[in-house]
Amino acid sequence: MRLLAPLAAALLLALSPVQARDWTVPADTGVIGVERAQLEPGYWVSRLPQADRVVLDANAIAKQNARVYALDRSMHDLAALPAALPRATVAPWVQKLSSPPKASLFDARGRAIDGKAVAAIVANADVAGIAATRTTRYGLVVHRAPLRGFPTLQPAFSSAGDRDIDRFQESALFPGDPVAVAHESRDGKWWFVVSPRYAAWVEKRHVALGDRDTVLGHARKTPYRIVTGGEVHTVFTPEAPAVSELQLDMGVRVPVLADWPVADPVNGQHGYTSHVIELPVRNADGSLAFSPALLPRIEPTSADYLPLTQANIIRQAFRFLGERYGWGHDFNGRDCSGFVSEVYRSMGVELPRNTSDQAVSPAFNRIALTKNDSREKRLALVRGLQPGDLIYIPGHVMMAIGQVDGEPYVIHDTTGLSWRDADGTARRAKTNGVTVSPLTPLMFNGSESFVDRITNIQRIRP
């Protein structure tokens, strides 16, 4: 009987509720285990016993953010940069992104990008021209801007049939984001900039240069509004094109001109139906200026960061539901790590940019897993997930939103979901966007599940 005990335990594990569920694919969703009711945030919020309990208050979040900048090497404290940046600091930043590609690349029409064209793109990064030392210049981003691995807008795909993942696309910057200029492209049209969460190439036209104190002080201006919708827009104004219909994404903080006289028009329009905000603009010579703009009161914003509660985490995540997947914030959207970052940013929490950095950041409550960890341990961990927990597999991050009969569910920005039917047939839904799904039936490849490949769980909570 003693010899049979381990076998009995293994059978009990295999037949546990999480594993033994009779999964179905509802006709009205086409995704395994997802009913239409589960596509509403209220479904998940209503299941929580303490949905509105504050997980971290503003003071705790401030300490958490300070910890991120102190411990996480992927984050950059711009205020701590020296007055001049030496080549020994700048060159590794540039070379990390702009070294010659080793694999073949294809353009948007599926044609191979020839070697001469690739060489010209690499040469434009001008690594050899990085100055021995360069005065650190500062600027504010004036509208949403792509961050690129090379100083080019040429898209580059890994295969002739790929149109989704541009390998030169890295991330995005948003209006009011501060940057430090570290290097310039050979053609003089791009800057290699360092932002708090990433360092990459941006077109000069997206950045207005100003003095250090003005640039870094912009994020501290009060009062302010926090964008809580997936994206909002300023009103159209022909009088001030630079701030007309400007897109502001979730978590962006904009100063409010609270003392603006209510009877004075803002760019030709009375402002009583809007918040009068202040936005950075770029003068013709590239210098920084500021302009008033109108942000309609009907747009989802808040006078402060939202409280960090499980209910708010779920509601904010669902604001992106169905948005098209955008690798590196491409397609005017975001990818898996950008998605979770912006949800948390609306509550004042700062995360590293990429999954590779988020997953191992020493600044959070990290649970690390290795290939030696048993499936039993992994299932026990996923059964204990709380809304807002971040689950990492190689190249991807998911956010826990709750459980149904012991099954953990997640929301994530993904190109697609794979699973096996009861008869073992492989199935795939090309969701290509922000998606709700159960966790345990998802397959990483032909033989391993997502659960098998979890590398880390990060908990943004005590």
Polypeptide structure, described:
With 462 residues, this protein is an alpha+beta fold. It has three domains: 20-58 and 307-459, endopeptidase fold (from Nostoc punctiforme), CATH 3.90.1720; 81-219, SH3 type barrels, CATH 2.30.30.40; 221-302, SH3 type barrels, CATH 2.30.30. 21% of the residues lie in helices and 26% in strands. The chain has helices spanning 5-14, 17-20, 41-45, 58-71, 87-98, 115-124, 212-217, 310-318, 336-345, 355-360, 375-383; strands at residues 54-56, 84-86, 133-135, 137-141, 145-148, 169-173, 178-184, 190-194, 199-203, 207-210, 224-227, 231-233, 247-249, 253-255, 274-282, 288-296, 301-302, 308-309, 365-368, 390-393, 396-404, 407-414, 417-420, 426-429, 433-438, 456-459. The strands form nine sheets. It has a six-stranded antiparallel sheet with strand order 19-26-20-21-22-25. The protein has a five-stranded antiparallel sheet with strand order 9-8-7-4-10. The protein has a three-stranded antiparallel sheet with strand order 14-11-17, with no helix packed on it. The longest helix has 14 residues, at 58-71. The radius of gyration is 24 Å and the shape is globular. The two termini are 43 Å apart. Mean pLDDT is 94; it is low at 1-19. It comes from Cognatilysobacter xinjiangensis. It holds the Pfam family SH3_6. Keywords: Hydrolase, Protease, Signal, Thiol protease.
